[in-house]
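Weekend entry, working from home. Most of the wet-lab plans are on hold until the incubator is repaired, so I used the time to fold the two sequences that have been sitting in the queue since the last round of cloning. Logging both here for the record. First:
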Amino acid sequence: MVRIGILTISDRASRGEYADLSGPAIRAWLERAIVSPWSAVAKTIPDGFESVRGTLVDLCDRDRLDLVLTTGGTGPALRDERPEAMRSVIDKELPGFGEAMRRASFEAVPTAILSRQSAGTRGSTLIINLPGKPSSIDLCLNTVFGAVPYCLDLIGAGRIETDPAFIGAFRPQ
């Protein structure tokens, strides 16, 4: 069974000042997209380099998750340190994910150029940084998820099968 981490990075949500809408949006999207068995590990943590870095290492190395989807902390604000924390833990950066997500998002809103979305691998875990707004999460997952199952195959992670009526997974023959 594939294990997927859903990591919400938000100072205010981690303190309970408002409800996390992003993590549940990711889970709802995955429930529509994935038809093979999977389970989720959901966490909400404060932003900041050390908290993000430590949690990513734990999810990849201790919990041995196949895929980690993060949300929040991708902008230019001082506390938005998720991209830097992710870069400090990955083995390989996959810049095409961020490029595709920004391109698709820019068609909807001009401030998408401020986002620092990215992706990379740590061992046999794929980490993808998503934006924080639920509608943007849907747009970005719709844009890049077709490549995720094959990426997981290539890095030795668990196998994901998608519902082709919702989103097709591309695997070369």
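Second, folded right after the first finished:
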Amino acid sequence: MRLVVGPVTAVERLLAAAPIDHVLTLVSPEAEISSIAVPRTVLRFNDISEPRPGLVAPDAAILATLLDLPRELAADATLLIHCHAGVSRSTAAAYVLACAQGSPGEEGAWAWRLRQASPEATPNALMIALADQALARGGAMVRAIAGIGRGVDCLEGSVFGWTLD
């Protein structure tokens, strides 16, 4: 599977530039989304790292939907993942999918690849913690993301692509 990751402002350009088989949209519950002519999965939650009153936190059900997504796609599919800025939710989703496709022990290597691909990436910590539990990684994913530190400040993250083998 190939992942293309970026901000919402890049979606139309990315859809026009190359074949995309599916779009994963990670947005706040109240966010409006435009229609597209590609199959799409929409996960609605706020970009928060711990539950807060009045906001929707990522939870185990959201992570289960994310982790099940590759089973619905062909092995050679291209999945476009985007959130609002392409910094937190989308980079967390890409990292989670990479770790899920990989073997235990590769968490640090995937975190380093994420940092190389997107200097701005600051993956949503709660998504990472939930995925770490779901994948039974014993804290390895959380430690790996903490190890790369916060990304550089920006308004939007870089568009990047990964091939998961």
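Plan for Monday: verify the second prediction. The chain is about 40% helix and 15% strand.
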